[in-house]
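User: Round two. Same drill as before: sequence, then structure, for each protein.

Assistant: Same drill it is. First protein:
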Amino acid sequence: MAASTPRKTTARKPAPRKRPAKAPADLGLVLDDAAARAETDKLLADREALFTIGGTTYTIPKQVPPSWSVKAFSLAVTKGEAAAISYAAEKLLTPEAWEALQECETVTPDAWQTVFKALMDRILPESGFGPKA
């Protein structure tokens, strides 16, 4: 038999070690899950009348999500009261309500003030954010 040459063997790399499965990370309080969405939707669905124009009554939520209050407060501090009022009107009123309010030529100054005070009181309640007097 003929002499055989030794075979070259390549060194095998060791198989990577399997890492133990990580325990799920503690996410703390999850603020945007389905349960939170359902609670917020329920909160916004509970509404009360604010004004009536042309026989249509327009409503606002009885309570708002705290994030709306934080945003309105931030706008009031950084951009002024007008920006906060605009944000409040946009969030609290439906587009139809906002349009009706803008188009109603019989809104008195006192009524206008009452509507905007109600919007601001709703989005920035006394017990909420901001400095106390």
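Second protein:
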Amino acid sequence: MSSFIGHSFAGLTVYLTTTELDVNRQERLSIRSNLPWLIWLLTIASIPDIDYLIPALILQPDRHRIRTTHSLIGVLIFPLITILILWLSGQRGKTFKLRSLQAILAGLSHLILDLSTGVFPLPLLYPNLEVFRLPFGILPSAGKIQLTNYLFYRNLSIELGVLIPLSISLLLAIRDMTLFGKHKFFIAAGLLVSACFMIWASTLSR
């Protein structure tokens, strides 16, 4: 599984890229100052791992552990509740559409990152108990969180080595839609760095 830091960073990336893409500069500055909303998106992106704290959410009908929170239903529960609350609170128009999209993408980002590790099979279609796992991994799994655990620091470094350059390249690519392609070199460099870390992650034992 991907780390809490990785999931939070994915939520941040969803927030920044969708904000950059969907609103004008004045609205962008207003939304970026809304720290509680950003924190909630980071929570949505990470909350499926709550099953570590509530083991009852993990089923064990056979040799596979069925992590019910790591399904399409599991990762979309909080985004859908969020959208309902936004609607009932009177939000409409551009802001409502943007925040709804951000909530859904933040939830889905959890599945994308965990699938990308290629480690644990996930019940994507729960309550159907069939599990899915990629035959390869481009992200490392999260190491056990211990100050003396070398693997934790190594895997976290690789994960951030994949995600940070990739996110920066994505942001720059979106900005280049209006800046006439001024960041092409930096976009390519970020993608190359990210790809190198993906290759490193793919060589790790699983």
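Residues 150-175 form the longest helix (26 residues).

User: Perfect.
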